[in-house]
Amino acid sequence: MNIFTTLCLLFLSVSAIFSLYIQYHMLQQNSYFISRYFSWVKSSYAPYVCLDAFLYCIVSVLFLKERFSILAAVALASLVIRVILAVKTRKTAIKPLVFTSRVKRLYATGVVILGILVSLYEVFPKNTVGKAATLLLFCLASVTPLFAVLNKIINSPVENLIGKSYINDAKRIIKSYGNLKVIGITGSYGKTTTKFILNRILSEKFNTVCTPQSFNTPMGVVRTIRELLKPQTQIFVCEMGAKKTGDIKEICDIVNPDFGIITSVGEQHLDTFGSVDNVFKTKFELYDAVKKNGGVCLANLESEGISARKDSCSDAVFFGAGSEYFADNIRYSPSGSTFDLHLKGDIITVTTRLLGKHSVCDILAAAALAHILGVGADDIKCAVASLSATEHRLELKPFKNGSLLIDDAYNSNPEGCLEAVRVLGSFEGMKKTIITPGLIELGEREYDCNYALGLEAAKYCDIIILVGKNRSVPLSDAVRATDFNKDNLYVVSSFKEAMEVYAPLCGKDSVVLLENDLPDNYLN
Questions:
Q1: pTM for the model
Q2: Are 468 and 523 a contacting pair, CB within 8 Å?
Q3: pLDDT tier at 523 (50, 70, 90 boundaries)?
Q4: Which of 28, 104, 225, 353 is most buried by a 10 A CB count?
Q5: What is the pLDDT of residues 398-412, one digit of tens each?
Q6: At what angle do helices 285-292 and 276-283 cross, to 10 degrees?
Q7: What pLDDT is attached to residue 481?
Q8: Cα distance between residue 38 and residue 392, in whole Å
Q9: In the CATH scheme, what is the code of domain 177-385?
Q10: What's the count of helices (H) and strands (E) in the chain, helices before strands?
């Protein structure tokens, strides 16, 4: 076989492996949903797909015309460029690719496919089989989104079998711990914070385990059960996330919850749910599961999406204004919040470092269920006082040039974002800045919700820095529609550029809100 052909095949194969880094990175960030991955390809990667197709045309023509030396040079150039891009993506990504066992299996599948195609050319260098194998290798190595999806499809049966075995093992573990109580927590927003708060309060009296970080998918829950639950665990606090109808039921079928908290129903993930009614139906799959088990499910009466539909869940125990569990006398300061908890007649005055009305609501939800489970007033008060902000959720931190940062990077819901801006506005006598790319996954409501966020920012902020030239259009439109000083409105391409704008503008009298630090697949 011609030495240049061998080099070409090797260079293109290795370059394909490096290029798969970006594709697997986006597949992982889109939860391995091919439809969501293709949305990213269409919106953010389309120009590169055109270049990939152009590269394929070049290498296939060179091969068919037997221009092997030029072909090897093109393949080497492709390899160098893709290595550089992969390294750059790894360094600059907000959340780099995590090399899980699944990702390693995807890479292994890609290597095997490329190896088979190279071998076919080695064995049949002159006939149709060899040439067809080589052209297919050129195609997959050039148009890597196609290669990534092919690997994902090939691996699906294996992933399904592995997932099913893990789920069965988790069910066995749950069933074997006969005295274990399971608490499910779901909602359009507030579920992660409520989970950590509840776990902290319950730990005053019980041996507890909760799903870590944002582990709220079936496999995240399964992993928690298999790795963290022990025979002595008394309560398992399980966060449940959803992108479509049936997702909460799937998790409930695994953990069989005895209690539940539904923090909210609102306009989130409407691109997959389609409507708020579907969001309600999905979140209340937890209510159905708890009711079936004869347990208690709490629901937030202050969530408009729940209060408007409360007649369909009359057996729920409601919390919030108008119920037996509510909070009042709320006072904020740069050091935190103080308020009264009313728990079915018991009144507890608590102080916490957490900020915002929704933090008060999250504490109320957790305290209400803890009260039902027999945790005393002193234990609740002590636990609430010890709470620290959940990472990246209205978290107060020292920042550049002595300024103060309100880190709300993980907030991604309309009501929570508006409340975060109002918290920023409560810092009287300080220069107030917001840095945000806006909200995502709201379907037809995305423009309106971002426009509302822009209006609120214009009302409370002195400086507004918007991230993403295209994404920030609704926010920019809203700000420009007000009497906000347009000289203090900045639109930048990245968070790094936003920091470069903010640094010379801030000092000890400044406070900045970082609102919704979007993953790489949405920044454009």
A1: 0.74
A2: yes
A3: very low
A4: 225
A5: 899 899 898 888 766
A6: 20
A7: 95
A8: 29
A9: 3.40.1190.10
A10: 20, 15
